[in-house]
């Protein structure tokens, strides 16, 4: 299913999935009760792949190093997971599980921002902190990445540079000095 998604087939039929996997249709139905069960297994595997791409970013590094590390890692995750998330977007309106998975993934992405930039966020009043987290989170979501890659037609490197510039500008706008920020 992932290979078909990567080739642009966002709604592969079960016979196409079976053929691609080199198994019979019967084998697929012996392993999965229905199409939703197949999708749930794909989500589980996608979660494993995504976890393998994410490494803890040391919050004690200087701010510039944390921005670089965060952007590089997030860009890699967003780019590697794009085909799967495109397909998920097509199926989400019809799947409670996919909607829950998106909510879980977005909460994790937000928590990562709060952890990596905790020192700087902790210097801000609650309302400003929340607004900055919202902005950093929104600009590091897959939907923003997808817009940069498909609508603006940027390469992965150029999209990552936009993400880095945006993070830096948002932090600066919040009054956080890139050079003298706590580390």
Care to describe what's here?
- With 183 residues, the protein is mainly α.
- The chain has a single domain, classed as Tetracycline Repressor, domain 2 (Orthogonal Bundle).
DSSP summary: helix tally: 10
- Based on helices, strands and strand pairing, what is the structural class? mainly alpha
The CA-CA distance between the termini, in Å, is 43 Å
Q: What is the name of the CATH architecture?
A: Orthogonal Bundle
Inertia-based shape: elongated
Contiguous runs where pLDDT drops below 50 for at least 5 residues = none
Beta-strand residue fraction? under 5%
Largest sheet: none
CATH-defined fold name: Tetracycline Repressor, domain 2
What's a quick, concise take on this entry?
With 183 residues, this protein is mainly alpha-helical.
Sum up the structure in keywords.
183 residues, mainly alpha, Tetracycline Repressor, domain 2, 10 helices, 74% helix, 0% strand
Topology:
Blueprint: H1 2-6, H2 14-21, H3 25-31, H4 35-53, H5 63-91, H6 96-116, H7 118-121, H8 126-139, H9 142-151, H10 156-173
Helix pairs in contact: 5-10, 6-8, 8-10
């Amino acid at each position: 299913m992932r290979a078909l998604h990567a080739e642009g087939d966002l709604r592969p039929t079960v016979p196409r999935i079976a053929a691609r996997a080199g198994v019979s249709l019967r084998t697929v139905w012996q392993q999965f009760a229905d199409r939703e069960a197949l999708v749930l297994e794909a989500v589980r595997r996608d979660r494993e792949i995504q976890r393998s791409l994410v490494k803890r970013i040391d919050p004690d590094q200087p701010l510039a190093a944390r921005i670089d590390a965060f952007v590089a890692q997030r860009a890699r995750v967003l780019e590697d997971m794009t085909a799967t998330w495109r397909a998920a977007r097509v199926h989400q309106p019809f799947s409670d599980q996919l909607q829950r998975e998106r909510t879980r993934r977005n909460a994790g992405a937000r928590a990562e921002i709060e952890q990596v930039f905790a020192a700087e966020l902790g210097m801000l009043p609650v309302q400003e902190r929340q607004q900055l987290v919202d902005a950093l989170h929104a600009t590091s979501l897959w939907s923003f990445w997808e817009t940069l890659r498909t609508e603006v037609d940027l390469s992965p490197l150029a999209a990552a540079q936009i993400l880095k510039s945006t993070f830096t500008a948002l932090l600066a706008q919040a009054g956080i000095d890139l050079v003298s920020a706590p580390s």
